[in-house]
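Sat 14:20. Reprocessing the chain from the morning session after the first attempt stalled halfway. Input below, unchanged.
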Amino acid sequence: MESLESIKILIQNDDIEAALRALETLLPGLESPQDQSEAFYLRGNAYRKLTNWKEAMNSYLQAIDLNPNSPAVHAHKMLIDILEFYHKDMFNQ
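Finished this time. Tokens:
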């Protein structure tokens, strides 16, 4: 089983598909809201790298729901800024 640290490395190394598969395996077994929040944050980062804005946004919001102090708060704001600047019509789909 992958750890959150090894998933971070997969994302940093742009092995996004492997990171997403590992997260799908790992997430159901995480009991700590802190660990769950971090996993959703990492999933958001992975989807962001794939430019899957919708899934990235959803993942960040799930992380924030579990931990309002998550780094996903900043990532979510950053993603909104990007979408408002480059994809004004993205919110109308």
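The mean pLDDT is 91.
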